[in-house]
Specification:
The chain is α/β, with parallel strands linked by helices. 41% of the residues lie in helices and 21% in strands. The chain contains 12 helices and 14 strands. β3, α9 and β4 form a beta-alpha-beta unit.
């Protein structure tokens, strides 16, 4: 039923088209690189929701026909919000923001993946509006100059949308996405098509990681940790490894839902707030616009922090 509703809502954007000719013309070269990276690995450190997703993603990547990947229902379910009405509320808030001119430039959507344009603002997509709205919330509380951020660590990067946004904010930014092997490959596809220096080596500007290493514990200024509904959907034994490195960053932005499967995220993140409050100014903010979907309504929150 949810898949059917997504397809129906796509029809609201039926008159808005992406120019896919350049994407298709260079698609084979990029998918050939992907083929060398592809491994059937999708079970480690995953909840059951994501095991099924990775099976579908493996099938998609194997077929080497990715230029319409943002039209796939299972991708939309996990990574791509499109024609939802709460997005319009986020857009209105962005337009009223003193930084609207800055946000407006970032909202311009790319053609990679053939994204569904937001029917009430076809310059962008619902997903990109949603991501930039999240950044605006962080700015509302901590007056953050995003242009000065030099390094971002994103735990669970979707298909690479946030990394793409930061590449527009600062063309020299160093960005690391930690995700599963298969999702890293999808991120590589999206970001390489956008002509970005992305790869699996530390010397790449946008680094794709899927193995947890002992990260340097030294705190650095002008850095940001992001986890949008990723950390809150990860098994507790593994998410605790990630929590141990958030003290490295000057700013933290985590989005989460009240519960996920058998985990009480509200209690979990309240405990994290208590643990780091001596080092950070922490705000837990109710997401006033997003309340889930018709099949499951629940509260969602922003966990925002700035180093003292």
């Amino acid at each position: 039923m949810s898949s059917l509703l997504r397809k129906m809502s796509c029809l609201l954007s039926i008159f808005y088209f992406n120019n896919m000719s350049k994407i298709i013309s260079r698609d084979e070269a990029i998918t050939n690189i992907i083929k060398k990276k592809l491994k059937k690995s999708y079970k480690k450190n995953l909840k059951k929701t994501h095991v099924e997703f990775n099976k579908q993603l493996y099938s998609l990547l194997s077929k080497k026909k990715l230029y319409n990947f943002l039209r796939k229902s299972f991708i939309q379910k996990m990574f791509f919000v499109h024609n939802r009405f709460f997005i319009f509320k986020e857009l209105i808030k962005l337009k009223k923001d003193p930084n609207w001119k800055f946000y407006e430039k970032l909202l311009v959507e790319d053609n990679v993946g053939n994204p569904i344009r937001y029917f009430l603002y076809p310059k962008s997509s619902g997903n990109k509006i949603n991501h930039i709205y999240h950044l605006s919330i962080l700015n509302d509380y901590f007056k953050l100059n995003f242009k000065k951020i030099s390094y971002v660590f994103e735990f669970g990067g979707g298909y690479g949308c946030m990394a793409r946004i930061f590449s527009k904010i600062n063309s020299k930014i160093k960005y690391c996405i930690y995700d599963t092997e298969l999702v890293n490959i999808l991120q590589f596809y999206y970001l390489r098509h956008n002509n970005l220096n992305v790869g699996f080596r530390n010397k790449d500007q946008i680094i794709l990681k899927n193995k947890f290493l002992k990260y340097n514990s030294n705190y650095k200024k002008k850095t940001l940790f992001i986890a949008n509904w990723s950390l809150s959907e990860t098994p507790l034994n593994f998410r605790n490894k990630i929590i141990n490195i958030i003290n490295n960053y000057e700013y933290i932005m985590i989005c989460y839902q009240e519960t996920f499967e058998d985990i009480n995220n509200k209690n979990y993140f309240n405990n994290i707030k208590h643990k780091i409050k001596k080092k950070y100014n922490v705000k837990i903010i109710l997401n006033s616009f997003y309340k889930g979907n018709v099949f499951k309504t629940q509260r969602h929150y922003f966990f925002l922090a700035k180093r003292l």
